[in-house]
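Deliverable D5.2: sample structural annotation.
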Amino acid sequence: MASLLRSHFFFIIFSMSRFLVFISFVSIVFFSCKENPPTYGDVLAKGFEQKSYKEFDTTAYVKVFQEVYSKQKANLHNPSWMKKLSDSTAGMTLIAEHLFDGSIDTLLSYFERSEEHGIRSSYYHTAEIKETLFSLRKLKPKDVAESYPLLAKLDLLGTDGLVAYVSSMKYGVVNPKRLYGRYFVPQKRMNYTAVVHLLDSVKMGPLMAEIQPKNQYYIQFQDLLENGNLNNEQRAKVLMVLEKLRWMREAFPEKYIFVNIPEQRLRIMEDGKTSQLMNVCVGETDNPAYTRKGENHETPVMQGILDAMQVNPVWNIPSSIVKKELLASVRNNPNYLASRNMVAYYKGKQVDPSTVNWNADSVEKFRFKQNPGSDNSLGNVKFLFENAYSIYLHDTPAKQMFGQTNRAVSHGCVRVEKPVDLASYLVNNEKQAEKIAKEITSDSISKSRWVTLKRQMPVYLTYYTTWLDDDGKIVSYPDIYGYDPRLKEALKKYWTN
């Protein structure tokens, strides 16, 4: 009976008789179709050129491994995962496949260069792994049991360090959703299933090269970290940017719309350069920006594909605004809805405001819309990208706000200063652009209509208080939501000194 416990090693069970079972722990690297494949002891004996390893005893090794695990548990980043792996494999898997193929040295070389990412190399147990590997290589045991603690420690710390490194590079060292209530970019994190898959298929060199962040700004900030002669404050800001770009995981496309909330501007980016620039108004906030209770209006961090716009839009007023603001205005002024070109609906039917008891609790179930017009809060056009949070870009009748230094004044959506320019760019058709421009700038009330965009454009609502201009120089913006201190504190234990 043969049982494949992991692709990195095998327990080979040979039925010698009804009462005799011989168990061998064998690396997949050395597995062959021979009648008597080498035991794990044979593998070690050949690799270290020490005959004593032929006496390797799996049962005795597992007992030592458990002792080493108990001593190292507090130092592990993922102790529960390491325990599951060791229980299912009788002593881990990493060493069995990679001890003699140079992969452990490759792993260490990447760990030692982790400071290029602003993460201290000690976070990945680098020194302990290196010291243990050195001790194991120079060991000439008369009794194979002398090697058990070193093999166990090397496998345990090497696997834990590898999992932590892969997680850091692919997803960042902290989870932004635990820091901020309005961070809406989907996040993947390592889980045990992913760990098992990682170890099942790992080829160390290609893996480590593949997971290095490829974002063009990440590479530029790495260069600044290494060669920019930064002071402590600048260094801290660059380290925070690197972590945020690890959250993003991907490179920016050739063309995209970039709204950096602290800058309070929108940029249309083409091949790494700004082709159009305009002011925007972003969400206001009076409470800590990482709250999850919905008290704030800050513009969330999110991204999507801008694929449609509505000319002369209808504003479906969010329930949060209804409860916090609109109902109070209606109760104080029964003519408020009519004065603002708004209508109320109950169970899908429009209601006459004059017949409603606005002090009744049932009015909180009403739905409200603002019809197209010069006073519509969305102005004459809104730009949509699919999301579950009713966030979009739009025009506004309050043009004077674009002249202010602090433009964090909206309810969360992004008000754009030059809607005609943005619409013209998106439709990418001169005649259609002229038609839309006339509708947007017209004072007459027209019927609302949808425009599906042939040029679908990635849009990023981001939050960088430190960024690079088109010439690659560092620029800074005010931390209008107070995000940085929370992130800085979360990253301290990972940073290099």
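Annotation notes: The two ends are 54 Å apart (CA to CA). Residues 1-34 have pLDDT under 50 and may be disordered.
The annotation will be released with the project's public dataset once the embargo ends.
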